[in-house]
Amino acid sequence: MEEKPDSILPTLGGQNALNIAMALADEGFLEEHNVRTIGTNTDTIKLAEDRLEFKNLMERINEPCAASIVVNHVNDALEFAEKIGYPVVVRPAYTLGGTGGGIANNEKELHDICSNGLRLSRVSQCLIERCIAGWKEIEYEVMRDSAGNCITVCNMENLDPVGVHTGDSIVVAPSQTLSDKEYQMLRSSALNIITALNIEGGCNVQYALNPNSFEYCVIEVNPRVSRSSALASKATGYPIAKLAAKIAVGLTLDEMLNPVTGKTYACFEPALDYVVTKIPRFPFDKFETADRRLSTQMKATGEVMAIGRSFEESLMKAIRSLETGLQHLGLKTKPALALTDEDIERRIRVCDDERLFIIGEALRRGYDWETIVEWSKIDKFFVWKFKKLIDFEKTIAENKFNKEILLEAKRLGFSDINIAHLWETDHREIFKFRKENGVMPVYKMVDTCAAEFESATPYFYGTYEEENESIPSDKEKIIVLGSGPIRIGQGVEFDYATVHSVWAIKQMGYEAIIINNNPETVSTDFSISDKLYFEPLTEEDVMNIIELEKPKGVIVQFGGQTAINLADKLAAHGVEILGTSLEDLDRAENRDKFEQALQELGIPQPLG
Questions:
Q1: Residues facing residue 277 across a β-bridge
Q2: 3-state secondary structure of 312
Q3: CA 20 to 30 Å from 550, out of 25, 217, 306, 364?
Q4: What whole-number distance in Å separates Cα of residue 384 and Cα of residue 359?
């Protein structure tokens, strides 16, 4: 308390910040030093985070929860599970990313998971609830101010059903399979919950929805900004954290202008005229022997997000953003051939990080799509869309260098590499054919209002339509490539470098343009650069933007390995690589050339 603050704001620093604030409050430290919590107060945090308090509140306001019990001892959990039957879900209080939780299918599993959950919980508390795995999982990102004004910023649908942590699930915004009645029912519930909790700022409400009826259950509430808040902010262009901070210091939603439009107010609910797909990035390429199965305890290290005019387009763009070497809905040839029919069924029934691609492989082999729905419990809408993509591969292959089929393929999100493979040619031939025939993307604006109001947001995504909303300026431009998804060995250090390089470029009088696809990063905040393109970091997608913007050059050295790997590909198109030259990058990256350089300089190195 060196700074003698009047207030602390605990809801913007994730679970750690909440836990520290609650520990200080419980010990009487805040009261002793006359410090108040602003934004969402400690009473509200306790209501949302403490499993028993939250359960009691939901009962008081008639919001349904799954049959459950709050326990502080393993024996109580075992007794409850014996009564309602297995499987059961274990959800520890005050933990991040489902840490310590899981689905227990028997007594031994429950004993092990619950013991660990109680140990990791700040208050030694776990919720044991009836497992409703297989229901749809829906999230609402909600904002409320001190005057009681509430809005839903975004609603999102997990492609994977309940039972997979939302951070590990493929997520689509806005929801694709809800009827209007279901959407309004859950929206009303979310507003009811945020009001009952008296939250001031942003919060995330998670629901399980029975796919065969209007029955729903509240899973949990995060009374803070979360991974979902970052996704909702980037999906809509509505800056949740910025506005939550202003609410914390006393402003209300009807007083704040929406920074995107500059005309509407922050109490205006965002509208989306596009589809966003988020796919998690997993660490299993580094940990090949790890358990790949996904449950309520999060395993992803990061995520990518893509924007398109249809679900198919955004899904295919997200797949190639992952940087796993995949460009289509399916595994690489060798692993795909190794899969037996038994492997396919088992791995569709039990979710792991590759299930999406195994479903693609199953459809390519002619599996009935309704059987896949039954095995995976993924909504038939999504599986039908996967089938549409797989079926269209045959159409592409049968219509080589057909402009109309090429345009339809691009609208469905197929990459040049995909199409080149199906046409048995080189992807640069596809790029050349597209340019000659005018099959190039246009760029649409993310403006929070579905173009209802004029907006000057410099935030764009590419799609294959008619009208281009990204008009290049006359200024000299420099493009900085971002670093893509967070993965093992790469955190936010490259994003830090990207942002600082953009600030320096702007200071020198150039127009600074960022291309990146990670919703968790600062570089994908539209207020950082002069222009932001939320696009995959591939040769094709970057070159499409370069063709439009015609920059002075591209900087690759701040985007980590992702950007460095694009340097030679861009140079082959005649693009100028600014900063460290391509030749010098190669000398540092290529082991033989680096060894040669050390020998020429007389610098010793270990034998190898």
A1: 172, 306
A2: helix
A3: 306
A4: 11
Phi, psi at residue 258, to the nearest 5°? -65, 120
Confidence (pLDDT) at 1: 64
506 by DSSP, 3-state: which? Answer: helix
Q: pLDDT, tens digit, for every residue of 432-443?
A: 999 999 999 999
CA distance readout (Å), 591 to 123, 242, 565, 579, 601: 52, 45, 15, 21, 15
Give Cβ neighbours of residue 513 (< 8 Å, ≥ 6 apart). 477, 478, 479, 480, 529, 530, 531, 532, 533, 545, 549, 551
Amino acid symbol at 280 = P
What is the spatial distance between Cα 215 and Cα 209, in angstroms, rounded to a whole number?
Answer: 6
Going by the DSSP 8-state scheme, the letter that residue 483 receives in this structure is: -
Instruction: Confirm if 245 and 218 have CB atoms less than 8 A apart.
Output: no
29-38, 90-99, 514-523 — which is least confidently predicted?
Answer: 90-99
> 23-55 burial by CB neighbour count: b if 16+ within 10 A, else e?
ebbeeeebeeeebebbbbbbebbbbbbbbbebb
Q: For residue 298, which of 113, 498, 98 has the smallest C-alpha distance?
A: 98
Supply the angle between the helices 42-49 and 51-60 in degrees, to the nearest 10. Answer: 90
CA atoms within 13 A on the CB side of 27: 10
Torsion of CA 21, 27, 33, 35, to 10 degrees: 30
CB 160 within 8 A of CB 378: yes
Q: Which amino acid is at 164?
A: V
**Strands 126-130 and 68-71, bridge-based pairing:** antiparallel
Torsion over CA: 113, 119, 120, 124 (sign) = positive
Q: How far from the centroid of its chain's Cα atoms is residue 588's Cα? A: 33
Instruction: Determine the Cα–Cα distance for residues 280 and 319; give it in Å rounded to an integer.
Output: 10
- Indicate the DSSP class of residue 258: P
Looking at this protein, which amino acid is placed at residue 398?
E
The two tokens of residue 514 are 């960022």
Selection from 204, 261, 191 nearest residue 449 by Cα: 261
8 A C-beta contact, residue 216 and residue 210: yes
Q: What is the pLDDT of residue 168?
A: 92
Query: Within 13 Å and on the Cβ side, how many CA atoms surround 547?
Result: 19
Q: Report the candidate in 169, 192, 172, 189 with the shortest Cα–Cα distance to residue 181.
A: 189
pLDDT average, residue stretch 19-40 = 86
Strand, helix or coil for residue 154: strand
CA quadruple 502, 507, 511, 513: dihedral, nearest 10: 10
Q: Nearest 5 degrees, angle CA 144-CA 147-CA 151?
A: 30
Average pLDDT estimate for 127-150: 92
pTM of the full structure: 0.91
For residue 227, what pLDDT is reported? 81
Say how far apart CA 556 and CA 483 lie, in whole Å. Answer: 9
